Amino acid sequence: MKCYVLNICLLILIYSPGRTQDTLQTNVYAQKLIKAYPDCITGIKDNYVVFKNGIKLLFDDGKAKTLAELYAQPDIEDQLRAVYVKGKTARPAELDDPGRIRNDTFFKVMYGATSAAVEQNLVTIHWLPKSANQTLRVSRINGVDKKLQAISDDLEKLPARLLPYVQQVAGTFTWRVIKGTNRLSTHSFGITMDINIGYSNYWQWDNKTTDETRKIPSYINRIPFEIVAIFEKHGFIWGGKWYHYDTMHFEYRPELLVD
Ligand SMILES: [Zn+2]
């Protein structure tokens, strides 16, 4: 009976107006996704994202959602709606967290659904080999390791006064949830880096709360934009552009940075 109901739902989704393949071909979000992940995604067909490993995930569930629902149950299209602005920006607008709405399953399909599965694709990189030479484990999927190595090369060309911000990297891979939620952090997938905590600020620490629905009075950032620009150039978004700021945090989210 469950299968029958599911099939009817699938048929409705496939044949509902505005969800045809033609529409999706011109859907700007769909195009960004395909452009951002050429190693993992072959295309979008009949409202499903098709991965190279054969898995298909629903693209747009067509539901209107509150902010709490967007955090709890986003579809892949919801994840792409965020407007992440590159370059130097002002303090984020209230409750604007571009990139914090994430469909966990999307990342699990690409990087691994369990800690052990993710670890199978982790490789070691040598971070800032000339000035720090820290070894870090990151995913090789989507070339994340190569992109971080390129970031490292670019960072070492910066004036020496900027290097302490990115030396003593606090962490890359840890399978864990975001504190105060049951949602996985992108640290779980080996695609994320926390730079030097000593120069960083986190909304939960500064405002003494984990409640995402509450207004927070403070926004503090000490990370220079020269550093942010280098990460963005290679497909990483910065947690300093979130109302719920996390200025040590960079994660590989090319779908929010492609033109
Ligand atoms: Zn982080």
UniProtKB/TrEMBL annotation:
InterPro entries documented for this protein: Peptidase_M15C, Zn_M74/Hedgehog-like
Tell me the ranges covered by the Peptidase M15C domain, including all copies.
180-252
| Source organism, top-level taxon | Bacteria
Tell me, what is one Gene Ontology molecular-function annotation carried by this entry?
peptidase activity
Pfam families found in the cross-reference section:
Peptidase_M15_4
* Name assigned to this protein: M15 family peptidase
Give the originating organism: Paraflavitalea soli
